[in-house]
Write a structure and sequence with these properties.
Elements (H helix, E strand, L loop, with lengths): L7 E8 L5 H11 L13 H17 L7 E6 L2 E6 L9 H6 L5 E7 L6 H12 L4 E6 L8 H12 L2 E4 L1 E4 L7 E4 L4 E5 L9 E6 L6 H6 L2 H17 L5 H5 L3 E6 L8 H11 L8 E2 L11 E9 L8 E9 L2 E2 L3 E4 L4 E4 L4 E2 L10 E2 L4 E6 L8 E3 L5 E2 L3 E3 L3 E7 L5 H13 L4 E5 L6 E4 L2 H15 L3 E5 L4 E6 L3 H10 L4 E4 L4 E5 L2 H10 L4 E3 L1 E3 L2
Parallel strand pairs: 1-3, 1-4, 4-5, 5-11, 6-11
Antiparallel strand pairs: 2-3, 7-8, 8-9, 9-10, 12-22, 13-14, 13-21, 14-20, 15-19, 16-17, 16-21, 18-20, 23-32, 24-26, 24-27, 25-26, 25-29, 28-30, 28-31, 29-30
The structure holds guanosine-5'-diphosphate.
Subcellular location: Cytoplasm
Keywords: Cytoplasm, GTP-binding, Nucleotide-binding, Protein biosynthesis
Family: Belongs to the TRAFAC class translation factor GTPase superfamily. Classic translation factor GTPase family. PrfC subfamily.
Length: about 525
């Protein structure tokens, strides 16, 4: 990319609830200087306009967009941190956010190791070989031994691990963190020892430097030497190519709460994390160096206020220099859309508030014309691919309490499908719509929004199916025959693509084996 703008680091944090994602996010924002006092309006001119537009939208329409993308600058780079919702349950939203990042930070609780949600999110990252930096959090508390944590990451995620620093003790015995790459000891703040917050960073010549002996207790130092020696024999040396390829994860021990290791993590993102990557697309991948502006919508957020139908589409810019007012073509429809009020999340720098570069996220207010997966481009011949729909794990039949509200129900389900909250299937037989979700929480959201926003009272009933697969075949006759033979389980999704609904994964396997001409896919790429 041209050298007229700082490079981007667009990333997300993946973790299990309570591991410390929120705390780490806050500390990264503070370290990057992005947290301002509430109500502070420093910017002038265009930037002030941009910012106040955006605040007005938030206030009037109740759309909370600020936390979805957080932008800050550090080490001459622009960081875009994309929030992945921190619920116990997922929505496809969470998955799709991960298609808009170039790298991820995986936060693990030192006392718990890899937890179920960490694993699920990791698997999504692996699908696209997203490079991962690991942050083992809460070393200020009792945790599992570092070796056990490292081996768990290596074994369960099948990744090479490379410790970049090492805790001198944990919990009650915690005395600091030793930087293995750029030898130094990070010590608690002496002035406020009771709080144990990170204070001094003491550069040393190595583990035999007498300065260490002066700062650490003899037991802690001996233990640190022993462990780090063993670690250097056990684990692969850091290899930036292997990291960027998604084969190796550098591991940082730290404490988000006590601010140990946060700065190191940020520096690692700056030094090692990849900038904007080429995006899979038809007819050819979109390179960040391409001159034409191209991006894709990875998330649509509706209004919290039922009186409005506005929504914000979040577009990840993949190539070109975006400027306010630009007209972009919506892939599929061929319609040109003027992006006259883009929300750029670069509120700090007024020069940049009018433009955006590959890796940046642009919020586009609209009334439902933009959908998740849409390509927006100055070109008319490009379609970003690789934004999957995921096979639902729960299917429910939607039954109206008041049957005269069919139209409203359909509109509501379409809206929510567009936001990626649910999927809607229209069965071949019968008039009831089927909704599919990946997690239970999505069903709760569905019911409460139906009532509050759309004034539709509906019940979710058990359906004979629990999962669904998109079906396709190179042989249209075979596909037709399959659909005819399985009419009771045949449906279409809201794009009209054929779907086979199944009782469970076992049935999917059984049917798949018996129909080799048909492809059953658990993800459907939006084209
Ligand atoms: P999230 O659910 O992943 O966003 O986790 P939070 O950031 O909300 O943290 C969950 C809990 O862990 C909160 O009570 C935090 O104060 C606490 N916590 C986060 N980081 C640390 C840490 O480094 N040390 C300790 N002792 N507690 C932490």
């Amino acid at each position: 990319m041209s050298s007229t703008h700082p490079d981007r680091r667009t990333f997300a944090i993946i973790s299990h609830p309570d591991a410390g994602k929120t705390t780490l996010t806050e500390k990264l924002l503070v370290a990057g200087g992005a947290i301002h006092m509430a109500g502070e309006v420093k910017a002038r001119g265009a930037a002030r306009r941009a910012r106040s537009d955006w605040m007005k939208i938030e206030q009037q329409r109740g759309i909370s967009v600020t936390s979805s993308v957080m932008t800050f600058e550090h080490a001459g780079l622009v960081f875009n941190l994309l929030d992945t919702p921190g619920h116990e349950d997922f929505s496809e939203d969470t998955y799709r956010t991960l298609t808009a990042v170039d790298s991820a930070v995986m936060v693990i609780d030192a006392a718990k190791g890899i937890e179920p949600q960490t694993l699920k999110l990791f698997e999504v990252c692996r699908l696209r070989s997203v490079p991962i930096l690991t942050f083992v959090n809460k070393v200020d508390r009792e945790g599992l031994p570092p070796f056990e944590l490292l081996d768990e990451v290596a074994d369960r995620l099948a990744l090479d691990v490379c410790p970049m620093n090492w805790p001198a003790g944990m919990g009650g015995t915690f005395e600091g963190i030793y930087d293995l790459v750029d030898p130094a000891l990070m010590l608690p703040d002496k002035a406020d020892a009771s709080r144990m917050y990170a204070g001094e960073r003491l550069p040393v010549a190595g583990l035999d430097d007498p300065a260490l002996a002066a700062k650490l207790s003899p037991g802690a130092l001996a233990h640190l030497k022993e462990e780090t020696e063993l670690a250097s024999a056990c684990y692969a040396p850091f290899d930036v190519a292997a990291y960027r390829n998604g084969d190796l994860t550098p591991v940082y021990f730290g404490s988000a709460l006590k601010e140990f290791g946060v700065e190191d993590l940020l520096n690692a993102l700056a030094a090692h994390a990849p900038g904007p990557q080429p995006q899979p697309a038809e007819p050819a991948p979109v390179d960040p160096d391409d001159a034409a502006v191209t991006g894709f919508v990875f998330k649509v957020q509706a209004n919290m206020n039922p009186a409005h139908r506005d929504r914000i589409a979040f577009m990840r810019l993949c190539s070109g220099k975006f400027e306010r007012g630009m007209r972009l073509t919506q892939g599929g429809t061929g319609k040109a859309i003027a992006i006259s009020r883009p929300m750029l999340f670069l509120a700090q720098d007024r020069d940049m508030a009018e433009e955006a570069w590959p890796g940046d996220i642009i919020g586009i207010p609209n009334h439902g014309t933009l959908r998740v997966g849409d390509t927006l481009s100055e070109r008319s011949d490009v379609t970003i691919t690789g934004l999957p729909n995921f096979a639902p794990e729960i299917l429910r039949r939607v039954a109206l309490v008041d049957p005269t509200k069919t139209k409203q129900l359909r509109k509501a389900l379409d809206d929510m499908a567009e936001e990626g909250i649910i999927q809607v299937f229209y069965p071949e037989i019968g008039a009831n719509m089927i909704v599919g979700v990946v997690g239970q929480l999505q069903l709760d959201v569905l019911i409460s929004r139906l009532e509050a926003e759309y004034k539709v009272e509906a019940k979710l009933e058990a359906s004979p199916w629990d999962t669904a697969r998109w079906i396709a075949s190179d042989d249209p006759v075979a596909l037709k025959a399959f659909q005819a033979d399985h009419r009771g389980a045949a449906a279409t999704d809201r794009d009209g693509a054929p779907v086979f609904m199944a009782k469970d994964a076992w049935e999917v396997g059984y049917v798949t084996q018996r129909h080799p001409a048909i492809r059953f896919t658990a993800t459907k790429e939006r084209r």
